[in-house]
Write a structure and sequence with these properties.
The protein has 7 helices and 13 strands. By secondary structure, it is of the alpha+beta class.
C-alpha cells in the first residue's frame, strides 16, 4: 500500500522542514520521509526539494510513499550460480543475468543476487543494509549486465558516495524501436513518478530530478536500432523511460511500450522473434569505478548475452536479404 498526500501548507506549518512535515502528516518515520524525498517521491509546488527545505504557507505538497515495513530477517544464503568477473577482499563484480532480482523485496523473498552473494561471501552479512547487504546500486530484474557489490564496510561507504556523486561510468547496450535522427546525442530531462501510474517513472514532467542519458548509434535495421548509452545520472528506469518518452522504446520492455510496439514490425520473422522476447533488450555492458581502497580506476565488461545477440544476428541476416 502507498500513503499519499496532497495538501496546501498552512500558516502554522510555515518554515517547517519538508522531511518533518511529511513524517508528521503521514505518520511515518523521519528517515522514511527523507528517503522518499531523496527518491523523488515528494514535491513542493511541483518541484523536487531537499529534506532540509523550509516550507512556506500556501505551498502545495504532494507525496506518494510506500508504507514502511519492519526490517526483515537477513536473507538466507543460497547456493545459486554466480558469474564473478572480479573479486578481492573489498569488492566483487558480477555479471547479473536477466530474470534475477538484485535483493529481496515486494514479490521476491528468495533466489536473489543477495542470496547468492551471501553464500559465496558470508562476511557481507554485516555490510550495509541488513535487507540488502553489500548492494550499492541496482539493475532491474529483466536487465542483464555488470554490477559491483561491497564486501567490506569501508568499500560500502566509499562506493555509496561515489554512486551518489556519479563518480563512475555506466555504459549500456540496447535494441530499441525506430531510427534516431542523428548518429549521437543527449537526452536531458526532469524525471519523476508517472502522474497516473505510481509504479512507473516519466520524463514528461515539468519538475523532478535531473536525468541525463548520452547515446550513440551502433547499428540500424530500418525499424530497430542498436544503441550504446552512457548514464550521466542514475534515476530509476532512466534509459527505458528516456527512450520510450522520445518514441524509441526498448524492444521487449513490458512496462514502457516495448511489447505493444512489436505489432508494427513489417518483417514477419523479426516480428515473431520480438514478440517472443521474455524481457527488455537492455544490457549493462561496461562499469567503470575507482577502487574504494586503492584509488585505482577499474573497468569491467559484461559480454552481450545470448538472447540479445541472437536478435542482433537475426536482424543482420534479414537486413542482408
Amino acid at each position: 500500500m502507498e500513503k499519499t498526500l496532497d495538501i496546501i501548507v498552512e500558516k502554522a506549518d510555515e518554515n517547517a522542514r519538508l522531511d518533518v512535515f511529511i513524517a508528521i502528516r503521514l505518520d511515518i518515520t523521519r528517515s522514511l520521509a527523507a528517503r522518499a524525498i531523496d527518491e523523488g517521491r515528494v514535491s513542493a509546488d511541483g518541484r523536487a526539494r531537499k529534506s532540509s527545505f523550509r516550507l512556506k504557507a500556501g505551498m502545495r505538497v504532494q507525496a506518494g510513499i510506500p508504507e514502511e515495513k519492519e526490517p526483515g530477517p537477513l536473507p538466507a544464503a543460497s547456493d545459486i550460480p554466480l558469474a564473478v568477473l572480479y573479486e578481492d577482499e573489498h569488492i566483487v563484480v558480477v555479471d547479473k543475468p536477466a530474470g534475477m532480482v538484485v535483493h529481496p523485496g515486494a514479490g521476491r523473498s528468495e533466489a536473489t543476487l543477495v542470496h547468492a552473494l551471501l553464500h559465496r561471501y558470508p562476511e557481507m552479512a554485516g555490510v550495509g543494509s541488513p535487507e540488502r547487504p553489500g548492494i550499492v546500486h541496482r539493475l532491474d530484474k529483466l536487465t542483464s549486465g555488470v554490477m559491483v557489490a561491497a564486501r567490506s564496510a569501508t568499500a560500502y561507504d566509499a562506493l555509496v558516495r561515489a554512486f551518489k556523486e556519479h563518480r563512475h561510468t555506466r555504459i549500456y547496450r540496447t535494441v530499441c524501436y525506430g531510427r534516431m535522427e542523428r548518429s549521437e546525442g543527449r537526452i536531458e530531462t526532469f524525471m519523476d513518478r508517472h502522474p497516473s501510474d505510481r509504479k512507473k517513472m516519466s520524463s514528461k514532467v515539468a519538475r523532478g530530478r535531473r536525468a541525463v542519458t548520452d547515446w550513440r548509434v551502433i547499428r540500424e535495421w530500418g525499424q530497430l536500432s542498436l544503441l550504446e548509452l552512457t548514464l550521466q545520472t542514475g534515476r530509476t528506469h532512466q534509459i527505458r523511460v528516456h527512450l520510450a518518452d522520445t518514441g524509441h522504446p526498448v524492444a521487449g520492455d513490458p512496462e514502457y511500450g516495448g511489447k505493444r510496439r512489436a505489432n508494427t514490425i513489417t518483417d514477419p520473422v523479426v516480428r515473431a522473434r520480438v514478440k517472443k522476447l521474455g524481457r527488455q533488450m537492455l544490457h549493462a555492458w561496461k562499469l567503470g569505478i575507482t577502487h574504494p581502497t586503492t584509488g585505482r580506476w577499474m573497468e569491467f565488461i559484461s559480454e552481450v548475452p545470448e538472447d540479445m545477440n541472437g536478435l542482433i544476428a537475426l536482424l543482420d541476416e534479414r537486413m542482408e536479404r
